[in-house]
Design goal:
The protein has helices at residues 11-21, 26-32, 40-46, 50-60, 64-69, 100-105, 172-190, 196-204, 206-210, 223-234, 239-242, 247-259, 262-276, 292-302, 304-309, 313-319. The chain is an all-alpha fold. The protein is globular, with a radius of gyration of 22 Å. The model is unreliable at 303-311 and 315-320 (pLDDT under 50).
Length: 320
């Protein structure tokens, strides 16, 4: 039986759904693919052999490019991937996070690629914190070890329905910081910036900067500990993320951080242009990966006269 991948679906999630749909428990599906036991599907997320990809393509009818696209094989953000750790202690990371409300809203619940990143602590859609364990038995997500024909939204250890997990509160300031960091990463990757490596290094050092876990990197902490890191940093100066960078890079990061994300930044400018220059609705939909530095300089020139009389808070950051 064919199963179509969902938007941003993780390869292992699709494999688990594919197994269940064809009447095979995920743990036994490893044998079908000629793989060993343990965390077989999460391992494929990181390295998908060509022969396995070709087999899946042939048997499922899903294009090989689409199958490979579900894996987490991009080198830029790979240092931020949560490590494959099946039995982590309570204060340590597990390999997967999830949003109960996303799972509850899915027609066929699935796990997202973005949930594998240590830099993600909340759901951008529902505004709640992510979870990395079953709230009933405290086990990490282990769909790969499921021996029954049970959908992956049920804990493989105790059968608790993860969709019923309570909402995790995260301060608004921490969620703004998280979204800003996500946008900064996207913009610098789209630009092919050489600064992305140093940016990732700074993010990995967040626990040390925040003083939450001395000597540990972001990928070693549980989701709850990472939430505390972001909540602490959200109320502090952003110099840890902008210091020692080239002026253009530091300015771009400060602007995104001040606005609370790329989308909010564009909205600020659109509102400003509506007020001072007439309607500029096209501003609200910039092309993907738009160079914010160029965009900001253009706005700065266009609104220079207005700024002399009343400074806009976001543009003030640009000129400050």
């Amino acid at each position: 039986m064919a199963i179509d991948p969902q938007p941003d679906e993780l390869l292992s999630s699709w494999l688990h759904r594919l197994a269940i749909a064809n009447g095979i428990a995920p743990r036994l599906f490893a044998n079908v693919l000629g793989l060993g036991d343990g965390m077989w599907s999460p391992r494929l997320d990181l390295r998908l052999p060509r022969d396995v990809a070709a087999l899946l393509c042939h048997q499922s009818g899903v294009p090989q490019e689409a199958i490979s696209g579900m894996a987490m094989t991009g080198p830029a953000l790979s240092p931020l991937l949560l490590p494959l750790r099946e039995n982590a202690r309570r204060n340590r990371s597990t390999w997967m996070q999830y949003c109960p409300q996303c799972l509850a809203g899915d027609e066929a619940p699935y796990f997202r690629r973005q949930w594998r990143l240590a830099s993600r602590i909340s759901c951008f859609l529902h505004g709640c914190g992510l979870r990395d364990r079953c709230p009933a038995c405290r086990s990490g997500i282990a769909s790969f070890d499921q021996t029954e024909l049970m959908p992956q939204q049920f804990c493989a250890r105790c059968a608790f329905d993860l969709r019923r997990a309570s909402k995790v509160f995260v301060k608004t300031s921490a969620r703004r910081l998280e979204r800003s960091i996500d946008d900064i990463c996207k913009v610098e990757m789209a630009k092919g910036a050489t600064t992305i490596g140093e940016l990732i290094s700074r993010l990995l050092r967040v626990p040390i900067i925040a003083g939450v876990a001395s000597g540990k990197t972001l990928t070693n902490l549980s989701t709850s500990s990472r939430i505390r890191c972001f909540e602490w940093l959200a109320d502090k100066p952003v110099s840890w993320l902008t210091a020692d960078e080239h002026d253009a890079v530091a300015r771009r990061r400060r602007l995104i951080l001040a606005a609370g994300g790329h989308g909010r930044l564009i909205a600020h400018f659109a509102d400003f242009m509506d007020k001072h220059q007439g309607s500029q609705s096209s501003v609200r939909s910039p092309p993907p990966g738009a160079d914010l530095a160029v965009l900001l300089e253009a706005y700065s020139r266009a609104t220079d006269r207005a700024i002399r009389t009343k400074r806009h808070p976001v543009l003030a950051v640009l000129r400050g």
